[in-house]
Design goal:
Two copies of one chain form a homodimer. With 358 residues, chain A is an alpha/beta fold. The first copy, chain A, contains 13 helices and six strands.
């Protein structure tokens, strides 16, 4: 029933290209290791891209948008209409990710995989199984067929992006209420209480956050996702969790991550919500993990635990908590410069610079 | 005797422009504060540039190079000839900073303010009072007139760069042995033992680092810069410290920082050595401090203490320890994207996006 491709293998990393990149880094005119993570990034990309000269010039940004029934519980500081209003802002070029895409020369596609919009929005790809998820306080957020549709929508978006042969993908999200759904998914996947992963989202106060934690913890019990002590329950799969408390854009991103890895396209992972989708993707298909490059540590509480579970060390820590793929976009120049240094610096031999003493 | 301009005032930050930038940030289509440090950077630049729309497009990179008599004590993993060889590599476009300057569309000028080169090197500006500093284990590194010359060389470089109306400057350095001179200056300015600020430089082993620490501690005593307990001594000025254990490129960078601030040009500060020069500059003229934006936390031990003394929180932490202004160059896109977001995002009113609930 659940799409078979989701668990099919992803190509392996090329150890030959990684080794060659490591050798080249040691020959460039700098002390060994002096470029720190810029060196390891270039080596990593060379292995993922099976390339002597890794690249991060051609970046495709895919933003998945969905609405959340749980918003009815008052879990967001902003009204639900903001989701659709922001899609228009994306299309009109006024949102943060629109500005960043222009500044970076990256393509930007926004996919409505489940907002409340009744008709297709101009400038937005519409590919959704239903309008919004259900309120998971009362019922499962998604039927299995709806979840499967969202995974397919993620895969279709990657297939469209792949036509322009991108060096990497940036995945982002928009959806009022989606930090609540993401925190619920993370709590269930990690078998922790909501207090460890639910943050203030777009700007809840302390009381609002406490209510959000109570709503999620109650839903975890209601859907039988954790034991009464908050421990993992045997038989609770990522698919069950995503149906119970997930969201359409979170599912689409998980699908997009697996589809990108299967096509050997690295993914620059944004903040909390995309990281939770990545955690679900890795639980479904661990072979996608090497394709994930973590862009930044979000200011959203809960990102830390999710990053730890993924053994991820993000590149940036700039107190960002906007979403929209914005943190990943801000990290893109780091990858580009890492590639430029790897590809264009002179070697000690070329530059006739003496090496280490003795 | 010491140049009078060094202690002359720097223009103040414009509170009017900072306040206007803060108001604008609150109106942009994102939750308040969701862009974290990108917001504060844009506000800071607006205040420094006295501008409604801050900019970081036009960047001038100035690299100051010098040799160090202390290299004779075996404090570097690389032979002293590397300084001059690397200048040729800068000029030929093969060094890390050359690659970064091209990738970023930034101008690059390399100034020999004191290498051992006997004749001017092609593609390099020569502006030096002597060839190399003296070995500070035995004698003061610089005469006061030589130090003053280096400060003037820094100021002259800023004057040349200012002709192209840069939005900001990136200052960097090259000089085998200069982490030893910088650590000695830092230890004296901060009144700490060398063990707290001397690191492995370009790649010393543990024994090499221990020897470097002993050499610096002995020099601090020899030049009477700290008390026998390693405490600050009354009357030990930054000028005395820079003459005793400094270096020509360190002095030139300190001069360049003050000259840039006096011209109201922000400076993106690189790693350990530039930060030590910045600390000396701030001790000489505290009014330059607001113009300093700290790019990254170097992997070089000792940077932490210097950053703390400057109350600096750098933007990046990528284990870089190359110098050449490379870490500052890697941070430049962060500033550019912060400006793009500030200047080009739509406001809630423009985009007709609803604001917070309630």
């Amino acid at each position: 029933m659940f799409p078979e491709w989701v668990v099919q293998p992803c190509p392996g990393v090329s150890a030959v290209h990684q080794d060659a990149a490591r050798v080249r880094q040691a020959e460039l005119t700098k002390p060994a290791g002096a470029l720190g993570r810029l060196e390891t990034l270039a080596i990593e990309l060379a292995g993922l891209q099976h390339a002597d000269r890794p690249r991060a010039e051609r970046a495709s940004i895919l933003i998945f948008a969905g609405d959340h029934g749980i918003a009815a519980q008052g879990v967001s500081a902003y009204p639900q209409e903001v989701t659709i209003a922001m899609l228009a802002n994306f299309a009109n070029g006024g949102a943060a990710i629109s500005v960043l895409a222009r500044a970076l020369g990256a393509s930007l596609e926004v996919i409505d995989v489940g907002t409340l919009a009744e008709a297709p929005l101009p400038g937005i790809v519409t590919d959704k199984p239903r309008r919004g998820s259900r309120n998971f306080s009362a019922e499962p957020a998604l039927e299995p067929a709806e979840l499967a549709f969202a995974f397919e929508a993620g895969r279709r978006a990657v297939a469209r992006a792949a036509a322009s042969i991108p060096d990497l993908l940036i995945l982002g999200e928009m959806g009022i209420g989606n930090t609540t759904a993401a925190a619920a998914v993370a709590a269930a996947l990690l078998a922790v209480g909501a207090g460890s992963v639910a943050g203030r989202g777009t700007g809840l106060d302390a009381a609002g956050r406490a209510q959000k934690v109570r709503i999620i913890d109650a839903a975890l019990r209601h859907h039988d996702l954790t034991t009464p002590d908050g421990l993992a329950k045997p038989g609770v799969t990522p698919v069950k969790i995503l149906c119970a408390v997930g969201g359409l854009e979170i599912a689409a991103i998980a699908g997009a991550i697996i589809a990108a890895a299967q096509r050997r396209i690295p993914v620059l992972v944004d903040g909390f919500i995309v990281s939770v989708a990545a955690l679900a993707a890795v639980r479904l298909n661990a072979a996608c993990r090497p394709y994930l490059i973590f862009a930044h540590r979000s200011a959203e509480q809960g990102h830390r635990l999710v990053l730890e579970a993924l053994e991820a060390r993000p590149l940036l820590d700039l107190d960002l908590r906007l979403g929209e793929g914005s943190g990943a976009a801000v990290a893109l120049p780091i990858l580009r410069l890492a590639c430029a240094l790897h590809n264009d610096m002179a070697t000690f031999a070329e530059a006739a610079v003496p090496g280490r003493s003795g």
